[in-house]
UniProtKB/TrEMBL annotation:
One of its GO terms (biological process) is methylation. Homodecamer; pentamer of dimers. It comes from Candidatus Synechococcus spongiarum LMB bulk15M. Mg(2+) binds at D40, D79, E111. Keywords: Cytoplasm, Magnesium, Metal-binding, Methyltransferase, Pantothenate biosynthesis, Transferase. This is 3-methyl-2-oxobutanoate hydroxymethyltransferase. Pathway: Cofactor biosynthesis; (R)-pantothenate biosynthesis; (R)-pantoate from 3-methyl-2-oxobutanoate: step 1/2. Its EC number is 2.1.2.11. Gene3D superfamilies: Phosphoenolpyruvate-binding domains. Binds 1 Mg(2+) ion per subunit. InterPro entries: Pantoate_hydroxy_MeTrfase, Pyrv/PenolPyrv_kinase-like_dom, Pyrv_kinase-like_dom_sf. The keyword Metal-binding applies. It catalyses: (6R)-5,10-methylene-5,6,7,8-tetrahydrofolate + 3-methyl-2-oxobutanoate + H2O = 2-dehydropantoate + (6S)-5,6,7,8-tetrahydrofolate.
């Protein structure tokens, strides 16, 4: 965490990517990025849900353990899932504590800065659990805020600014700003001492984070602020279809098994 703050002071851009299992964790480890996030976006990327809300604490921990087997160098952070920290500081402590005790995660991320949330953050930080904040588009509030760009009006920008200052005050070691106007992120980057890590928040941030599946073109619904670097889904589908065709073709040309010689046990 201190390294990230040093990088901010030095003007070295922080890079962060999400991972959801050991395979994606290995890609993220090999990327040389600074932070690996077991994001609750895995509810959509890996589990097929249409929002991040359904993923449970148990499921997040299962994925965090798998990612943790592949991540050695980057700081490993896990998202606290919906309703694991909104039901009071005791439950939040128990949930966050489980990530630090039962997975290799070194910090947790949680969304928003309502007074109940900042009270939870304060409690976690004072107990030695590092917390990354997350403002702007907060997917756990999708039914209230939608998927669109946030903080577009001047009063909303001022509200977000106050929340960012509050999160810093409560001890967050870094802040993710998602899908907000670039000028606001740029202003907060200058105003805050903690690193500001943007996603769809323009280029003038202390760091950038992306959902790895979006970057690699693996997600069916691409957010408007990420241009995939590969057409992976199409490529994978093509290769798998071609393999199936090849097997059927080879099967047709090979001689059929003799009826008096059926496959034995263990075939
Ligand atoms: O869950 C997630 O993937 C996130 C993004 C901000 C990276 O929180």
């Amino acid at each position: 965490m201190r390294d990230l703050q040093t990088y901010k002071r030095q003007g070295r851009i922080i890079t962060a990517l999400t991972a959801w299992d050991a395979l994606s964790g290995a890609w993220v480890e090999a990327s040389g990025c600074d932070v690996a996030l077991v994001g609750d976006s895995l509810a959509m990327v890996s589990l097929g849900h249409s929002t991040t809300l359904p993923v449970s604490l148990e499921a997040m921990m299962h994925h965090a353990q798998a990612v943790g087997r592949a991540i050695h160098r980057p700081l490993l952070v896990a998202d606290l899932p919906f309703l694991s920290y909104q039901c009071g500081p005791e439950r939040a402590m128990a949930a966050a504590g489980r990530f630090l005790k039962e997975t290799p995660c070194q910090a947790v991320k949680l969304e928003g800065a309502e007074p109940e949330t900042t009270a939870v953050i304060n409690r976690l930080v004072r107990s030695g659990i590092p917390v990354m904040g997350h403002l702007g588009l907060t997917p756990q509030s999708v039914h209230r805020l939608g998927w669109g760009r946030q903080a577009c009006s001047a009063p909303d920008q001022e509200r977000l600014r106050q929340k960012a200052l509050d999160l810093q005050q409560q001890g967050c070691f870094a802040l993710v700003l998602e899908h907000i106007p670039a000028m606001l992120a740029s202003r907060l980057r200058r105003e805050l001492e903690i690193p500001v890590i943007g996603i769809g928040a323009g280029p003038d941030c202390d760091g950038q984070i992306l959902v790895t599946a979006d970057l690699l073109g693996l997600t069916p619904s691409q957010p408007p602020f990420v241009k995939p670097r590969l057409q992976s889904t199409e490529m994978f589908k093509r290769e798998l279809q071609s393999w199936c065709r090849e097997q059927r073709h080879q099967g047709q040309t090979a001689s059929p098994p003799k009826e008096d010689n059926p496959p034995g046990p263990g075939y």
